[in-house]
Structure formats: C-alpha cells, structure tokens
Description:
about 550 residues, alpha/beta, Pyruvate-ferredoxin Oxidoreductase, domain 3, Rossmann fold
Amino acid sequence: xxxxxxxxxxxxxxxxxxxxxxxxxxxxxxxxxxxxxxxxxxxxxxxxxxxxxxxxxxxxxxxxxxxxxxxxxxxxxxxxxxxxxxxxxxxxxxxxxxxxxxxxxxxxxxxxxxxxxxxxxxxxxxxxxxxxxxxxxxxxxxxxxxxxxxxxxxxxxxxxxxxxxxxxxxxxxxxxxxxxxxxxxxxxxxxxxxxxxxxxxxxxxxxxxxxxxxxxxxxxxxxxxxxxxxxxxxxxxxxxxxxxxxxxxxxxxxxxxxxxxxxxxxxxxxxxxxxxxxxxxxxxxxxxxxxxxxxxxxxxxxxxxxxxxxxxxxxxxxxxxxxxxxxxxxxxxxxxxxxxxxxxxxxxxxxxxxxxxxxxxxxxxxxxxxxxxxxxxxxxxxxxxxxxxxxxxxxxxxxxxxxxxxxxxxxxxxxxxxxxxxxxxxxxxxxxxxxxxxxxxxxxxxxxxxxxxxxxxxxxxxxxxxxxxxxxxxxxxxxxxxxxxxxxxxxxxxxxxxxxxxxxxxxxxxxxxxxxxxxxxxxxxxxxxxxxxxxxxxxxxxxxxxxxx
Length: 549
C-alpha cells in the first residue's frame, strides 16, 4: 500500500499553503486519497510556514511524522524538519536560499529569467517535485490550469523549468483514475449551510474560521446569499439576530475569543427564541493563546455559554463529510425548534484539506417549522404542547410580531408576573424535550470497527480520523458522539455496551468529553490528552496508546 508524505516549507509570502494544496491536487489526479495539514505562526509577516501533504490509497485525515519528500524554500525548512525525514527521503531545495544535501533547484534564477514574482517560486518547486516523483508533466499542467487560473502560462513555464532541473526521479504510480473533490473543513461547513438554506452569513475574521467568510463571500456571487463583515463580534451577533428575526436563515462564524463577546447575544437568542447558528472554530487558549493552532478546550464553554437556562444544539463534526451533513442539520433544526445552535469545529478541521467522499454526504430530512394559523390571532410565544411556537416574520398584516429579551407573555409583552414566568420556563423545558426527540431520530453516535472489539477509543471532533486509522492497527473500536447537546445518552450507552476498556482521546487537559460522559453515567477508563496546540500524528497517537493499553 502506498502512503506518501511531502513536507513543503518556506517563509510567509512564499505561497506555502498554495504549494501544499497543489501537491494534494497532483496526488488527487493520480488517484490517491489526500490530506493536507497547514502549520503557520501568528505573524502578519515572516516566520516559518510549512504544510504536510499526505497521500494514500485509503481514506486518511491525519498526518504522519515521517516525510518522504522535503521541498525547502528556506533554510529553516531543512534545519527544523530534518528529523522528520525517512531514510530514503528526497530533498529538493531552492539553491539560492538553502544549503544542504539533496537536489538544488535554481528557483531565483528561473523566476528572474521569467520576470516572475517571488510567490511563483512554489510553481517551480512543484514542477521539480513532479519530476522527482515521476508524475507526468501533463498532470502538472492539468492541475495548474485548474487551480491557478490567473497567468497560467507563466506558472506553467516556471513549473516546466523546475521539472527539467531535476536529474533523479523515483516513480509514484497512478493508483486510480477517479478524482475526488478536495475541500477544507470551512468549505464543507459552508456548503452544508447552503444546503440547509442559508440566507445570510455575518462574521468578523478570526482564525480558524476566517476562510469560511471568504468562501461564502465568493459563493454570494452564485447564491441568493447576504454576507456581511461588521466591525466586531458583538455587532456580528446582534446583526445576525436582526436578520433572523426578519426571516433570514443566518449563521455567524468566530473562535473562542470572539464567541466570548457573542455570549450575551447568544443568550438573547435562547430567551427570545430566535434561531441562529454559530460556527465556532476552536484554537489553543486560554485568552489569545496560540491563535493559529488547534485545540478542543471549548466544549464546556459552548455547552454553558449565556446567562440563564435555554435549550441549544451543539454538534462536533469529525470529517469534511460530517461537516457538510451536520452543518445542514444544525441550521435546519435551529429553525425548526427556534433555538441557537453551535457547530463546534477546530483549526485542524477548519483549515485541513481532505478528499471528499460524496457518498457519505446524504443529509436526513428534519421536517418544517411550525406555521401559524391566522395572522389576526398570531402570538410569537404561543403556548404549545411541544413548546415550539408558530414562527412568523414582520411585516404581518393585522398582527404584531414582538420578540423580547425580558421575561414576556405569549404576545411578547414584558411581564414580571410569577405565573407567566413559570409558564414560559416550562415552555422552554418542553421545547428542550422536543429538540431531544428530534435528535434521537438521527444517528448522533458513530461507531467504527466495533465488531467484537473489547477496547474502544472515544473521540470527538477532528480526532476522529487519526483515531480510526490508529485503531485499525491495534484492533480497537472507535466511538464518536457527533451531537453533544442534547446529549445522546441512550445512543452512547448502547455504543459502549460490551466495551471493557474505554480510552478517551482529546486535545484538552481536563477531559471535557470524559467529564460530560461521566455526568450521564458513562465511565471512561483512560484519558489520552494532547496539549501543545498541534494535532495528533499517526505515530504519536499510536505510541501514546501503546503506553496505556
């Protein structure tokens, strides 16, 4: 089985992320499944950036420590990553910037001859990689024309010279003819929201969800979609709630620090029963922490964010396919049940690029919101058996539609009467039960390789794919709760039945999923954590599991 990893490194401004993505597309054209991990510091300019592009014959979603190719556009790329190279690794480097063993490519001379900007150096090194790995140049041409529509001829000329500068090659065979779409997690979330009927997206750029704002802004050219970038996260949430009140299915995007500013508005959504979806991309905290690195430390935060008690949806997809499906479901259920919803992602998922399995992207139906009978008798907070009131939007002929952050009656009029406050609280409790009923109809807990497995890994979010890969090697099962609120207690208890040793794998110190499970009577035997802001590699998780099992 072929399993190839390519590390591409350079300075900010060298187009390192683009280079890694181009390599992923080369592998894609050769029939491989791919995964791209992007590592960069939180600097506006400078610093060392690198990508690891991995290709294999089976579905993957995690990087390996050992790399088979190193493409170096800076000296740091060699000095910092030498220890990751396999015994027979091929090193290709920009001979004008880098000194060391391997094959030097005169990148600067080629760019000067073509009168090209520095950023086109990645096309040169991509051409060199293609020759060194035996990938035909017609594949390079196909990829560059599709992925670099601006000045493709110049990029192709530079890639051709890089290709011709390489003397030695080894052949990476073609393993298939079918090419999968390549998407990052933000794009998958955006596509899922569009599938769910998204009308408006409001966001202030914040890593790792910034690219979702850019993606949906581009999609607005082809969809009836409003995309707005206000001045701060408080304005984001309040503008989004206004759009939702006016009948627009609306989502916002942020990270932990931005969501801190949104929590009062989030509570307003819960109390006023205005549906809203928050895409919350976790990164390393607390506070600013590591702004461009990953983590799973905000689960308890989103479960309890906002003052008071109100039902909410929290989903944590673990793959690009799940990101698509559950973003659509979250938007639909938020509107059906008139509650706020959180799509809890992280930097690894948001910015990682994956081969997409379109067969795994079937979104189950969730039904339609309740409709009012007569406009003259419309009450925004009408008491119903399931706690979900008929939904209407202004203007409504002969009726007023009032939403209210204060305690209110069925018409939305502020009140402090004890009996009405109690009735409205009980109404929200019934709505919580109705939401739980909707969730119970869905497959909220996924299992992998559980046939006879006595040891299982419990994971959530982006740790899913590294857990499933490592678990196959150990003969372990994998259990993944996707919905974390309302908590799918019955489904999870059924999944862990028969498991003797349950090992939780989380990228946080406290074991936040572990604690949540224990609250619902589900015991976790061992907790394996990751605390440095980087995702688990396949080798690292394997070694950690060997220590504890």
